[in-house]
Structures are given as C-alpha cells and as structure tokens.
Amino acid sequence: MRIICILGAYLLDLIFGDPPSFPHPVRGIGWFIGKLEEPFRSIIKNERIAGTFFACTVITTTWLITFAITYAANSFNNYLGAVISTIIIYTSLSVKDLGVQSLAVFDALNEGNLNKARMLLSRIVGRDTANLDEREIIRATVETIAENIVDGIISPIFYAFLGGAPLAMAYKAVNTLDSMIGHKNKRYLYFGRAAAKIDDIANFIPARLSVVFLAIASWISSYNPIKTWSIAIRDGRRNPSPNSGLPEAAVAGALGVRLGGLNYYDSAAVHKSYIGDDNNPLTRLHIKEVIKIAYITSALFVISGTVLFWLI
Fold first, then answer.
1. What pLDDT, in 10s, does the model give residues 27-74?
2. Cα(176)–Cα(195) distance, rounded to whole angstroms?
3. Model's pTM, two decimal places?
4. Cα 204 from chain centroid?
5. Which of 64, 72, 179, 275 lies at a 20 to 30 A Cα distance from 233?
6. What is the DSSP string of 22-79?
7. Structural domain boundaries of the chain?
C-alpha cells in the first residue's frame, strides 16, 4: 500500500504542484516553530541545549501528529488511510512547483524584465536578488534547482519509502527548521546549530544517491554522465554544506558550466567556492535544461524505489 501512496503522491504533485490556497502542512510546521521558539529560549537558558530540545520536539511532534492521523484513518478504513497518506506525502514533494517557479524566472528573463526576474527569484532563494544581473540570476536559479533536487524531491521520497507519511513529514519538519533557524547569524548561531546538523544528517544519504540518479538523468538528457559523476566527486565538497554541493556539482558537470562565486545574504558578502569547469557560458536555456534533468531524476528515483521496495 505504501508504494501506491508514494506513486499517487508523485502523480498528484506532477499534476497540481503546490496550489497557494491548499492548506499546506509545512505552513503549520512553520507556525509551530514560530510559536515554540520563545518558550524554549525562556525555559532553557543555554542556547545550544535549548535549540537541541526545540528541534527534537518539533520533529517528534510532527511525526506523532502525522502518525496519529494516518493510524486513525487506517483504523476507520484502509482506503481512507491510503488516501490520507497519499495527500500527506504529496504535500512533502515539490517537483512541479520547483519547475514552475524556475520557469517563471526564465520567462521574465526572456521578456527582458530583470526586475520581475529578480522578484520571482527572491521567492525561491535565500540570497539578496535586488542587484543581480542576468548571468547571476541564471546562476542562482540553476543552483537552487540543483540543491532542491535533494531537499524537495529525493529526500522526502526516500523517507516516504522508509517510513511512510509520518517519516516524510518529519523530514519536512527537519527541512523547515533548517530554513527558519539553521542560520549562522547572531540570533541562531547556537540555538539553530542542532537544527542545521540534523538537516545535514537527514540529507546525507539522499544527497549521495542524487549523484547516481543525476548522472543517469544527464545521460538520458544527452549530457555526459561520466562528467556529471566526476565533477560531483571532485567539487561536491567545496560547498559549505556537506550535501547541497553534490547535486550542484553534478549539474555543473552535466552542463559544463561553473557555479559558485560571490553571493549576498542580508547585505553580507559570502564567497562560495567555484564548482565545475567554465567550459560553457551560463545562458537562460540552462534553466530549462536543469528543470528537465530534475524531472527525469525524480521519475528515475521513484521508479527505482518502487522496484526495490517491491523486491524486498
């Protein structure tokens, strides 16, 4: 039944994406994080300890609530349980939404509207976008698609196969915690450290699996899979993150482009190591190419997981 739920969730995501009006559980997790942070800070004075208990509480609570919902639905009717599980897993995926939002940036660039492209880009990246030129907009879009192949596709599917809807949603709690408090700024340097570390651990295996499937997807897309693999191995560790550098390097290898460089976050300059070889200049079409590779990667991973789960 779990396989059917995952396949159904994947198809729902490809068809509907992430409708703005849909009551997305991640928004609920974000609300929960916002409400719980100050009480934990007040009760536990040591920021590292407080942040560790805070992160564990959010993740565990998310798993327990999801488990209770799916368990109750299954107790009432197995088909109802399958439908609820399918919907929950569907909300953990962002295959179509990643493509739609990235294509919107591509379309704005094609229109020659840099201001619109910067505004649309700001919805999917954490860096400052107000002063980016066209090449930097393209680089940021390509990098965020590559990174989100793990966060929004491989990892939630991976955990759905391992533990169904409850574990997929627990992963989304991990991911949301990292995006909200896993920052190395004054407020979260210590309090958000556990959240960032848990996110690193949760994405460790999926990030490495992504390189395998990105290499196959690049071959299907008429790119060089050996180059995809070799650049991922060579440059994957150059990124400050132990995980996001791998899919970024794989994509850079496939396209024959160089990623990384100077970014600004809240007006603070951060230089990230260069990834890939500067064989081809970045163009708008690379955005569409990475989206295609992301779609193929997601399909390959779902099919492979289904076959493996079935055999086991």
1. 999 999 999 999 999 999 999 999 999 999 999 999 999 999 999 999
2. 9
3. 0.94
4. 13
5. 179
6. S--HHHHHHHHHHHHHHHHHHH--SHHHHHHHHHHHHHHHHHHHHHHHHHHHHHH-HH
7. 2-311
